[in-house]
Amino acid sequence: MNRLINILINLSIIFILVIIPIVNNRVEAQINTEEGLINYLKLDEEGQLIEDTNEIIEEKKHGTQFVDNNIIFDGENDFIELNNFNLKNIGQGSISVWFKVQDIPNSNGIRPILYYGAKNPCKNMPDASNQGVIIEVGHDPMHYNSKNLYFTIFADGCEYPTFCYDSNKAIKENKWYHFVAIVGKDYNTGYLNGEEMINRRYNFGSSSSSQFFEDARKHESMWIGKGYWNGEPDFFKGSIKNIRIYNRVLNKKEIKYLYNNEI
Fold it and tell me: Nearest-CA neighbor of 171 among 101, 78, 93, 92?
């Protein structure tokens, strides 16, 4: 009897040491977060410079600080200006970004995370209209005291959005979040901290809408931490890092892998 128990124990040890690592390696082999990666904006190894690992986008820092491998924005006038981007033919894909907002305006303002569109604001619209794409937190007074996360596209110029959903729940201040926006051939979705946002709220468009960078009316500017609200500049306060832009849809395993391994 004791011999049988020892055999079973040894087999269990072999399973743990040999079989499980093999299975895990096979799972990781199916995850390729480099495929379709157009731009990956992150701090370099010294933590002193933002680099695009594909060496395409160039950046210009406006007052931001780099601390502990994070990009710090003061909410007053700090932002990162991006140049040499080429996203106007990207009709489907994914955007992955990490952010931690220090405070969210509860009156007439937003915290813009990623901005792509017109260089100048739409003076006729009382919101974040930018003739392009914007990821932001907050949306007062359109959504009173909102602290939700928004993914919005303006394909009709200086008009109301053609597509927009929000997290339908408040983002907590001083907490890291990982957001992935997904746009496929005839659908869209979003993931927050590795989980699909199944309760997201559509303010414009629907889950079958398919709009992305190519649908922007303007392709003039791309900023991290700066946007417009009510025709005036507005800025992010907190930290942003590791922005990935793909020309394909990331699957659930890849999104979960980024969430578990990138920060």
Answer: 101
Number of helices followed by number of strands (H, E) in the chain: 3, 19
In CATH, 36-261 is 2.60.120.200: yes
Q: Could you report the per-residue pLDDT of 86-110, keeping only the tens digit for each?
A: 999 999 999 999 999 999 988 888 9
Residue 256: in which H helix or E strand, if any? helix 252-261
pLDDT of residue 68: 83
Over residues 62-85, the pLDDT tens digits come to 999 998 888 999 999 999 999 999
pTM, full prediction: 0.87
Count of residues for the chain?
263
**Cα separation, 105 vs 234, whole angstroms:** 11
Domain ranges of the chain: 1-30, 36-261
Question: What is the C-alpha to C-alpha distance for residues 220 and 164, in angstroms, rounded to an integer?
Answer: 21
Residue 201, SS3 per DSSP = strand
Measured distance CA(38)–CA(246) in Å, rounded: 5
